Every structure is written in structure tokens, then in C-alpha cells.
From TrEMBL:
Protein name: Uncharacterized protein
SMART domains recorded: SEL1
Top-rank lineage group of the source organism: Eukaryota
The species this protein was found in: Sexangularia sp. CB-2014
Entry-linked Pfam families: Sel1
SUPFAM superfamilies: HCP-like
Matches recorded under InterPro entries: Mitotic_Regulator (IPR052945), Sel1-like (IPR006597), TPR-like_helical_dom_sf (IPR011990)
Length: 166
């Protein structure tokens, strides 16, 4: 049956050279194997099934970043966006954050939409994974809009979650 979360974690080890020689090609292969696992919804699942969905979601996010940067595959912004959307739909806060950045900047073929960016940053900052990067991005966005009270609240939240860069 395969465990997509395990496949994702193996890909991270291969990419970073943890316990083995670094191998970006093999890492990329394991990410693609993870996303080929049957998809289940991440909402209201018992923990084992939630972890399965999360492994697939994290793999989609990682593949999106690889396509975005051209690491282990040809650079392709459209495929990067497609995988970030899939990862976000499955509950990956990092994918939500990347998708929000695309909306904020009007990049990867998306029209600029600060409301959509804000909503995605908010989802990423408040879901089960609580992305501190999204909290900082949300704080920055609120600051740019002149909403300093909200900006400070999200910076404080990021610091409370251990983000020392905030």
C-alpha cells in the first residue's frame, strides 16, 4: 500500500544527505511516488489517515517548489502552481503559503489578489500545522495595508510559535 508520509520523509533524507549521500534525483522520485498514493481528504480524519493525506500534501508542496526552482526537474511555473494548489487543497500549510505568495505578487499565471492572498495566509497560519512563515507573511501584508494592530498580532504569534526571524 505504501506510506506517503514515509516516502516524503525518505525524500527529505535523500535530499539532505541524512544517513546517506545526498541524491536529489532519488529524492524527487520518492516525492512523485508519494503523490501517486491514493488521495484521501485531510478533514475530520483519524490521525493515521490524516498523516497519510498530509504526506501526499507535503510531497505536492515539495514538487511544486522543485518545479518552481528547477531542482531535480525542468523549471515550470505552471506545474509548480498546480502542485501547490493540490498540496493546499490537501491541507499543507507550506503549499497554502506559496499559493498566497503567488496571489500576492500576481505570479505563476495568477492575477494579483490581496484578499485571496490574505485568506490563504490566514488558512496556513491557523491550520493544524500553523506555518510561522505564513504568520510573518500575513503580518507583512497587514503592515503594507496599514493595519498595524493586526500586523503586530501575527508577528507576536510567529514569535510565540518559535520563529526568531519575526
Amino acid at each position: 500500500l505504501g506510506c506517503p508520509e514515509c516516502m516524503y520523509n525518505l525524500a527529505l533524507c535523500l535530499e539532505r544527505g541524512q544517513g546517506c549521500a545526498p541524491d536529489v534525483k532519488a529524492a524527487t522520485g520518492w516525492l512523485f511516488r508519494a503523490i501517486d498514493c491514493p488521495v484521501v481528504s485531510a478533514e475530520d480524519l483519524p490521525i493515521p489517515l490524516y498523516c497519510r493525506a498530509l504526506g501526499i500534501a507535503q510531497a505536492h508542496n515539495a514538487i511544486g517548489s522543485r518545479y518552481n526552482d528547477g531542482i531535480g526537474c525542468a523549471k515550470d511555473e505552471n506545474l509548480a502552481l498546480e502542485h501547490w494548489k493540490k498540496g493546499a487543497t490537501l491541507g499543507c500549510s507550506s503549499a497554502m503559503n506559496m499559493l498566497a505568495i503567488c496571489y500576492e505578487n500576481g505570479s505563476h499565471g495568477l492575477l494579483e489578489s490581496l484578499p485571496k492572498a490574505r485568506d490563504l495566509f490566514m488558512q496556513a497560519a491557523t491550520n493544524l500545522q500553523s506555518s510561522t512563515e505564513a504568520m510573518v507573511n500575513l503580518a507583512r501584508l497587514y503592515g503594507e495595508l496599514g493595519l498595524l494592530k493586526q500586523s503586530l498580532l501575527w508577528l507576536d504569534a510567529a514569535v510565540n510559535w518559535g520563529d526568531t526571524s519575526a
